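Write out the 3D structure for:
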Amino acid sequence: ISFFVKENTSLENSQKISDLSSYESSNVLGINTINKTGKITFDLVSTDIRTKVLEEYLTSIRSPLVGQASIFIEMADKYKLDKWGLLPAIAMIETNGCRAENQRGYGIKNCWGWRRNGKDIRFSTWEDSIENITKSLSKFSTDPFSIQPSYCPPCEASGNDLWAKGVVSELKNI
């Protein structure tokens, strides 16, 4: 793991979280060096940078999914989803980051437009929805252009790839 510390500051204050793309691992050690007596002290804290980056993104888009970043990361790892930002990116395209689902007042915990027999699928918790959808997507390619024919048939039929391009764009935003 590579890291840096500026004198008399903490890692969190040294560099904005989203700018930490040069880290060799998603696990970062936070090191505090501030002490009232001027003595340097170190507090090592292991954290997953992906969770912080995703939480920052969800907050920036004012998503009701704020607070769920660790669940997205946990499920992406559990089901070996190579694109850990895929579900939040799809949620942005399908329901404006889950704001549309939330505004409709459905309370179905389904920001991904998943339907069965023409009806929205209802999940009991965010964790349940994130796990079920991650598990399902992990069985297929995670390339938005490859999953577009199943996920958004009208977009595929039109030939303009708007859905896939939108998901790719949101992945970059994350």
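DSSP finds nine helices and four strands in the chain.
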